[in-house]
Amino acid sequence: MRYFYCLLLFLALFQHYPVFAQSAPEASQLIKDAVQLNKDGKYTEAADKYAEALKLDSNNVYANYGIAFSLLASGKGDDGIPYLKKVVKSNSSITAWAYDLLGSIYDKDRNSAKAIAAFNEGIKVDPKYQRLYYNLGLVYFRDKNYAEAEKCAVQSLMLDAKHANSQRMYALVCFHQNKRANALLGLCSFILLEPNTARSAEAYGNVQHIMQGGILKADPGAPAPVFDANAAALNQAITKAVAEAGKKKYPSAGDLLTAQLTAIFNAVGPLADQQTGDDFFKKYYAAYFYKLGQSANMPAFARLVSQSTPESAEWVKNNAQQMTALDDWVKGAERGF
Asked: Rounded to two decimals, what is the model's pTM?
Protein backbone atom coordinates (compact mmCIF):
# COMPACT_ATOMS: atom_id res chain seq x y z
CA MET A 1 0.00 0.00 0.00
CA ARG A 2 1.29 3.46 -0.87
CA TYR A 3 0.45 4.85 2.57
CA PHE A 4 2.53 2.16 4.30
CA TYR A 5 5.35 4.72 4.13
CA CYS A 6 3.34 6.89 6.52
CA LEU A 7 3.45 4.07 9.06
CA LEU A 8 7.23 3.84 8.75
CA LEU A 9 7.56 7.56 9.40
CA PHE A 10 5.23 7.31 12.35
CA LEU A 11 7.23 4.45 13.83
CA ALA A 12 10.45 6.39 13.37
CA LEU A 13 9.06 9.43 15.13
CA PHE A 14 7.70 7.30 17.94
CA GLN A 15 11.10 5.70 18.50
CA HIS A 16 13.20 8.86 18.44
CA TYR A 17 11.13 11.60 20.06
CA PRO A 18 9.77 11.90 23.61
CA VAL A 19 6.37 12.77 22.20
CA PHE A 20 4.27 11.17 24.87
CA ALA A 21 5.75 12.95 27.86
CA GLN A 22 2.66 15.12 28.24
CA SER A 23 0.18 12.26 27.71
CA ALA A 24 -1.45 10.28 30.45
CA PRO A 25 0.73 7.23 31.13
CA GLU A 26 -2.14 4.91 30.23
CA ALA A 27 -2.70 6.69 26.91
CA SER A 28 0.99 6.57 26.13
CA GLN A 29 1.10 2.82 26.63
CA LEU A 30 -2.01 2.27 24.55
CA ILE A 31 -0.44 4.23 21.69
CA LYS A 32 2.73 2.16 21.95
CA ASP A 33 0.64 -1.00 21.78
CA ALA A 34 -1.26 0.35 18.77
CA VAL A 35 1.96 1.21 16.94
CA GLN A 36 3.15 -2.36 17.35
CA LEU A 37 -0.18 -3.72 16.18
CA ASN A 38 0.05 -1.57 13.07
CA LYS A 39 3.57 -2.82 12.51
CA ASP A 40 2.24 -6.38 12.72
CA GLY A 41 -0.51 -5.61 10.21
CA LYS A 42 -3.30 -5.88 12.81
CA TYR A 43 -4.98 -2.65 11.79
CA THR A 44 -8.43 -3.20 13.29
CA GLU A 45 -6.95 -4.05 16.68
CA ALA A 46 -4.65 -1.01 16.40
CA ALA A 47 -7.62 1.26 15.70
CA ASP A 48 -9.33 -0.06 18.82
CA LYS A 49 -6.22 0.72 20.91
CA TYR A 50 -6.03 4.23 19.52
CA ALA A 51 -9.72 4.72 20.30
CA GLU A 52 -9.05 3.74 23.92
CA ALA A 53 -6.15 6.19 24.07
CA LEU A 54 -8.32 8.98 22.70
CA LYS A 55 -10.86 8.41 25.46
CA LEU A 56 -8.07 9.31 27.87
CA ASP A 57 -6.46 12.05 25.77
CA SER A 58 -8.76 13.20 22.98
CA ASN A 59 -6.36 15.85 21.62
CA ASN A 60 -3.32 13.60 21.29
CA VAL A 61 -2.18 14.22 17.72
CA TYR A 62 -0.34 10.90 17.49
CA ALA A 63 -3.37 8.93 18.52
CA ASN A 64 -5.54 10.88 16.08
CA TYR A 65 -3.07 10.33 13.26
CA GLY A 66 -2.55 6.69 14.20
CA ILE A 67 -6.24 5.81 14.24
CA ALA A 68 -6.70 7.45 10.85
CA PHE A 69 -3.86 5.39 9.44
CA SER A 70 -5.24 2.19 10.96
CA LEU A 71 -8.70 2.89 9.60
CA LEU A 72 -7.35 3.54 6.12
CA ALA A 73 -5.27 0.36 6.23
CA SER A 74 -8.30 -1.64 7.31
CA GLY A 75 -10.45 -0.31 4.47
CA LYS A 76 -12.30 2.40 6.41
CA GLY A 77 -10.33 5.43 5.28
CA ASP A 78 -13.24 7.85 5.28
CA ASP A 79 -13.82 7.18 8.98
CA GLY A 80 -10.33 8.57 9.64
CA ILE A 81 -10.97 11.98 8.06
CA PRO A 82 -12.35 13.67 11.22
CA TYR A 83 -9.29 12.56 13.19
CA LEU A 84 -6.91 13.95 10.58
CA LYS A 85 -8.78 17.24 10.48
CA LYS A 86 -8.06 17.52 14.19
CA VAL A 87 -4.37 16.96 13.54
CA VAL A 88 -4.10 19.51 10.73
CA LYS A 89 -5.59 22.14 13.04
CA SER A 90 -3.01 21.36 15.72
CA ASN A 91 -0.02 22.97 13.99
CA SER A 92 2.10 20.14 15.35
CA SER A 93 5.21 18.36 14.07
CA ILE A 94 3.06 15.88 12.13
CA THR A 95 0.67 18.31 10.48
CA ALA A 96 2.26 17.74 7.06
CA TRP A 97 1.99 13.98 7.58
CA ALA A 98 -1.69 14.38 8.36
CA TYR A 99 -2.24 16.28 5.10
CA ASP A 100 -0.36 13.53 3.28
CA LEU A 101 -2.53 10.82 4.77
CA LEU A 102 -5.67 12.88 4.21
CA GLY A 103 -4.73 13.31 0.56
CA SER A 104 -4.18 9.55 0.28
CA ILE A 105 -7.67 8.90 1.62
CA TYR A 106 -9.23 11.29 -0.87
CA ASP A 107 -7.12 9.80 -3.67
CA LYS A 108 -8.23 6.28 -2.74
CA ASP A 109 -11.81 7.56 -3.07
CA ARG A 110 -10.85 8.97 -6.49
CA ASN A 111 -11.67 12.47 -5.24
CA SER A 112 -8.84 14.16 -7.10
CA ALA A 113 -9.79 17.74 -6.28
CA LYS A 114 -9.74 17.15 -2.52
CA ALA A 115 -6.60 15.02 -2.74
CA ILE A 116 -4.75 17.74 -4.67
CA ALA A 117 -5.90 20.37 -2.19
CA ALA A 118 -4.74 18.29 0.79
CA PHE A 119 -1.31 17.58 -0.67
CA ASN A 120 -0.83 21.24 -1.59
CA GLU A 121 -1.78 22.32 1.94
CA GLY A 122 0.79 19.87 3.26
CA ILE A 123 3.43 21.36 0.98
CA LYS A 124 2.66 24.81 2.38
CA VAL A 125 3.26 23.46 5.87
CA ASP A 126 6.46 21.60 4.98
CA PRO A 127 7.87 22.35 1.51
CA LYS A 128 10.68 19.85 2.10
CA TYR A 129 8.43 16.86 2.72
CA GLN A 130 9.25 14.84 -0.39
CA ARG A 131 6.39 12.34 -0.22
CA LEU A 132 3.80 15.09 -0.65
CA TYR A 133 5.18 15.96 -4.09
CA TYR A 134 5.36 12.31 -5.11
CA ASN A 135 1.81 11.54 -3.98
CA LEU A 136 0.51 14.71 -5.61
CA GLY A 137 2.23 13.63 -8.82
CA LEU A 138 0.46 10.27 -8.66
CA VAL A 139 -2.92 12.01 -8.55
CA TYR A 140 -2.04 14.13 -11.58
CA PHE A 141 -0.69 11.03 -13.34
CA ARG A 142 -3.93 9.14 -12.74
CA ASP A 143 -5.88 12.16 -14.00
CA LYS A 144 -3.68 12.17 -17.12
CA ASN A 145 -2.39 15.64 -16.30
CA TYR A 146 1.11 14.60 -17.28
CA ALA A 147 2.68 18.05 -17.36
CA GLU A 148 1.76 18.72 -13.71
CA ALA A 149 2.80 15.19 -12.75
CA GLU A 150 6.21 15.86 -14.31
CA LYS A 151 6.63 19.02 -12.21
CA CYS A 152 5.82 17.03 -9.08
CA ALA A 153 8.28 14.29 -10.00
CA VAL A 154 11.01 16.88 -10.48
CA GLN A 155 10.31 18.44 -7.08
CA SER A 156 10.28 15.00 -5.48
CA LEU A 157 13.62 14.08 -7.05
CA MET A 158 15.21 17.35 -6.01
CA LEU A 159 14.41 16.39 -2.43
CA ASP A 160 15.29 12.70 -2.76
CA ALA A 161 17.17 11.78 -5.92
CA LYS A 162 17.38 8.14 -4.83
CA HIS A 163 13.61 7.69 -4.70
CA ALA A 164 13.15 5.02 -7.35
CA ASN A 165 9.38 5.52 -7.60
CA SER A 166 9.85 9.19 -8.46
CA GLN A 167 12.41 8.27 -11.14
CA ARG A 168 9.90 5.86 -12.61
CA MET A 169 7.05 8.36 -12.45
CA TYR A 170 9.17 11.03 -14.15
CA ALA A 171 10.02 8.63 -16.95
CA LEU A 172 6.44 7.48 -17.49
CA VAL A 173 4.84 10.93 -17.48
CA CYS A 174 7.46 12.13 -19.94
CA PHE A 175 6.82 9.05 -22.09
CA HIS A 176 3.12 9.95 -22.13
CA GLN A 177 4.09 13.40 -23.42
CA ASN A 178 6.30 11.82 -26.13
CA LYS A 179 9.38 13.40 -24.55
CA ARG A 180 11.42 10.37 -25.46
CA ALA A 181 14.85 11.57 -24.29
CA ASN A 182 13.50 12.54 -20.87
CA ALA A 183 11.69 9.24 -20.61
CA LEU A 184 14.64 7.11 -21.67
CA LEU A 185 17.11 8.76 -19.29
CA GLY A 186 14.53 8.62 -16.52
CA LEU A 187 14.10 4.89 -17.11
CA CYS A 188 17.87 4.41 -17.05
CA SER A 189 18.04 6.28 -13.74
CA PHE A 190 15.27 4.12 -12.33
CA ILE A 191 17.08 0.93 -13.35
CA LEU A 192 20.27 2.17 -11.68
CA LEU A 193 18.32 2.33 -8.42
CA GLU A 194 16.24 -0.82 -8.96
CA PRO A 195 18.23 -3.00 -11.33
CA ASN A 196 16.82 -6.48 -11.07
CA THR A 197 13.06 -6.52 -10.51
CA ALA A 198 9.92 -7.02 -12.53
CA ARG A 199 9.61 -3.23 -12.78
CA SER A 200 13.16 -2.88 -14.12
CA ALA A 201 12.39 -5.53 -16.73
CA GLU A 202 9.33 -3.50 -17.72
CA ALA A 203 11.49 -0.36 -17.82
CA TYR A 204 13.93 -2.09 -20.16
CA GLY A 205 11.01 -2.96 -22.43
CA ASN A 206 10.07 0.72 -22.48
CA VAL A 207 13.68 1.68 -23.28
CA GLN A 208 13.56 -0.64 -26.27
CA HIS A 209 10.21 0.79 -27.34
CA ILE A 210 11.58 4.33 -27.19
CA MET A 211 14.69 3.44 -29.18
CA GLN A 212 12.49 1.85 -31.83
CA GLY A 213 10.61 5.14 -32.21
CA GLY A 214 7.53 4.08 -30.32
CA ILE A 215 5.24 6.40 -28.43
CA LEU A 216 2.38 5.75 -26.06
CA LYS A 217 -0.95 6.03 -27.84
CA ALA A 218 -3.28 8.75 -26.64
CA ASP A 219 -6.43 7.61 -24.88
CA PRO A 220 -9.53 7.43 -27.08
CA GLY A 221 -10.83 10.94 -27.66
CA ALA A 222 -7.79 12.57 -26.03
CA PRO A 223 -5.61 14.93 -28.07
CA ALA A 224 -2.12 13.84 -29.06
CA PRO A 225 0.62 15.11 -26.74
CA VAL A 226 1.96 18.54 -27.58
CA PHE A 227 5.68 18.99 -27.10
CA ASP A 228 8.02 21.86 -27.91
CA ALA A 229 10.87 22.22 -30.37
CA ASN A 230 13.43 21.15 -27.77
CA ALA A 231 11.69 17.83 -27.19
CA ALA A 232 11.28 17.32 -30.93
CA ALA A 233 15.01 17.90 -31.48
CA LEU A 234 15.91 15.46 -28.70
CA ASN A 235 13.54 12.86 -30.12
CA GLN A 236 15.20 13.23 -33.49
CA ALA A 237 18.63 12.90 -31.89
CA ILE A 238 17.62 9.52 -30.45
CA THR A 239 16.32 8.34 -33.84
CA LYS A 240 19.52 9.38 -35.57
CA ALA A 241 21.79 7.90 -32.89
CA VAL A 242 20.04 4.53 -33.00
CA ALA A 243 20.15 4.50 -36.80
CA GLU A 244 23.89 5.25 -36.84
CA ALA A 245 24.62 2.56 -34.25
CA GLY A 246 22.58 0.06 -36.24
CA LYS A 247 24.75 0.38 -39.34
CA LYS A 248 27.30 -1.99 -37.85
CA LYS A 249 27.04 -5.64 -36.88
CA TYR A 250 27.70 -6.67 -33.29
CA PRO A 251 28.55 -10.01 -31.70
CA SER A 252 25.56 -9.90 -29.35
CA ALA A 253 22.41 -8.00 -28.46
CA GLY A 254 24.23 -6.61 -25.42
CA ASP A 255 26.96 -5.17 -27.63
CA LEU A 256 24.33 -3.58 -29.87
CA LEU A 257 22.59 -2.05 -26.86
CA THR A 258 25.93 -0.71 -25.63
CA ALA A 259 26.47 1.03 -28.96
CA GLN A 260 22.92 2.37 -29.09
CA LEU A 261 22.92 3.80 -25.57
CA THR A 262 26.42 5.24 -25.99
CA ALA A 263 25.34 6.99 -29.19
CA ILE A 264 22.18 8.31 -27.54
CA PHE A 265 23.97 9.64 -24.45
CA ASN A 266 26.66 11.27 -26.56
CA ALA A 267 24.05 12.91 -28.79
CA VAL A 268 21.56 14.03 -26.15
CA GLY A 269 24.13 15.49 -23.74
CA PRO A 270 25.59 18.23 -25.97
CA LEU A 271 22.21 18.97 -27.58
CA ALA A 272 20.46 19.46 -24.24
CA ASP A 273 23.32 21.67 -23.08
CA GLN A 274 22.53 24.07 -25.92
CA GLN A 275 18.83 24.22 -25.06
CA THR A 276 17.06 26.46 -22.57
CA GLY A 277 13.92 25.97 -20.54
CA ASP A 278 14.54 22.68 -18.75
CA ASP A 279 17.64 22.99 -16.60
CA PHE A 280 16.67 19.98 -14.50
CA PHE A 281 16.76 17.63 -17.47
CA LYS A 282 19.89 19.29 -18.83
CA LYS A 283 21.93 19.09 -15.62
CA TYR A 284 20.49 16.09 -13.81
CA TYR A 285 19.88 13.71 -16.67
CA ALA A 286 21.57 14.72 -19.92
CA ALA A 287 24.90 15.88 -18.46
CA TYR A 288 25.14 12.85 -16.18
CA PHE A 289 24.51 10.27 -18.86
CA TYR A 290 26.77 12.13 -21.27
CA LYS A 291 29.60 11.61 -18.75
CA LEU A 292 28.64 7.96 -18.48
CA GLY A 293 28.64 7.64 -22.26
CA GLN A 294 32.18 9.02 -22.33
CA SER A 295 33.37 6.48 -19.77
CA ALA A 296 34.53 2.88 -20.14
CA ASN A 297 31.50 1.65 -18.19
CA MET A 298 28.96 1.49 -20.98
CA PRO A 299 29.23 -2.29 -21.62
CA ALA A 300 28.46 -2.92 -17.95
CA PHE A 301 25.69 -0.33 -17.91
CA ALA A 302 24.00 -1.81 -20.99
CA ARG A 303 24.01 -5.24 -19.35
CA LEU A 304 22.68 -3.80 -16.12
CA VAL A 305 19.81 -2.20 -18.01
CA SER A 306 19.02 -5.41 -19.88
CA GLN A 307 19.84 -8.05 -17.28
CA SER A 308 16.26 -9.33 -17.50
CA THR A 309 17.50 -11.08 -20.66
CA PRO A 310 19.42 -14.37 -20.26
CA GLU A 311 22.43 -13.10 -22.22
CA SER A 312 22.92 -10.00 -20.11
CA ALA A 313 22.23 -11.85 -16.88
CA GLU A 314 25.03 -14.26 -17.77
CA TRP A 315 27.32 -11.37 -18.72
CA VAL A 316 26.69 -9.67 -15.37
CA LYS A 317 27.46 -12.93 -13.58
CA ASN A 318 30.73 -13.44 -15.45
CA ASN A 319 32.02 -9.85 -15.34
CA ALA A 320 31.95 -8.93 -11.66
CA GLN A 321 34.95 -6.62 -11.99
CA GLN A 322 33.31 -4.50 -14.67
CA MET A 323 30.07 -4.34 -12.69
CA THR A 324 32.02 -3.19 -9.63
CA ALA A 325 33.74 -0.53 -11.71
CA LEU A 326 30.34 0.73 -12.89
CA ASP A 327 29.07 0.79 -9.33
CA ASP A 328 32.14 2.78 -8.24
CA TRP A 329 31.60 5.24 -11.09
CA VAL A 330 27.94 5.74 -10.14
CA LYS A 331 28.90 6.35 -6.50
CA GLY A 332 31.57 8.88 -7.44
CA ALA A 333 29.97 10.77 -10.33
CA GLU A 334 28.50 14.13 -9.39
CA ARG A 335 24.94 14.80 -10.44
CA GLY A 336 23.64 18.35 -10.21
CA PHE A 337 20.22 19.94 -10.56
From this structure: 0.89
